[in-house]
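> call design_seq(struct)
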């Protein structure tokens, strides 16, 4: 396990980004429209946040709620515009109606990233077979992280899966980092750290007044303290 666990915070705008960095976040996930669980932000927003902070940014590539890819051509064009705006890391993940990974969409969009690092997001928690998904994506260029709660219902439901996957780190399909998020609470952290999990993702936990309010540097700092400096 790395000496410093990664803390990733969802940011919607510059205010969020600055507060998250001040609190000790290592990386931001940039999205818009949390009512739809996070969609692709504008290139202007990405450029403004990139100018305001110097920590890593991962930008969501997702057009609508759910895990269907939708307009893949549009997503590939968006990826190009976001790269022009300064994005170098991304978040994506698509399933077909049967819960299998949508390889066509992932191949097209990942190809448009030209080697940029990216996270396969919580679509894995809705997959028909997460082990098969991991093995299908095992050698995809740029894929270095899975954002997962272990189950669709969140970390409470998925803890057993998270611990089991942590034990498989380094096996074929399990080389990528586990980034745990989705109903994650501070009391989950010690057990996850003890299992060797070294990356954590928070959204609402960084916003004491809810999604209508901004990220709190103090809330992020509390998480940073629990994870270790």
């Amino acid at each position: 396990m790395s000496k410093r666990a990664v803390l990733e915070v969802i940011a919607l705008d510059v205010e969020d980004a600055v507060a998250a960095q001040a609190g000790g976040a290592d990386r931001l996930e940039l999205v818009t429209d949390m009512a739809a669980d996070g969609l692709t932000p504008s290139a202007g927003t990405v450029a403004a946040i990139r100018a305001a902070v110097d920590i890593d940014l991962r930008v969501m590539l997702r057009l609508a709620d759910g895990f269907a890819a939708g307009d893949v051509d549009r997503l590939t064009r968006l990826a190009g515009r976001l790269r022009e705006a300064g994005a170098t890391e991304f978040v994506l993940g698509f399933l077909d109606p049967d819960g299998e990974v949508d390889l066509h969409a992932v191949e097209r969009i990942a190809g448009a990233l030209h080697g940029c690092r990216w996270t396969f997001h919580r679509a894995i928690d809705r997959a028909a077979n997460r082990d098969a998904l991991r093995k299908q994506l095992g050698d995809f260029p740029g894929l270095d992280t899975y954002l997962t709660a272990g189950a669709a219902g969140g970390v409470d439901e998925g803890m057993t899966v998270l611990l089991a996957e942590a034990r498989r780190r380094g096996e074929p399909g399990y080389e990528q980092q586990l980034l745990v998020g989705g109903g994650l609470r501070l009391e989950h952290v010690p057990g996850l750290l003890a299992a060797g999990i070294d990356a954590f993702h928070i959204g609402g936990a960084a916003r004491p007044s809810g999604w209508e309010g901004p990220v709190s540097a103090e809330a992020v700092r509390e998480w940073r303290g629990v994870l270790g400096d």
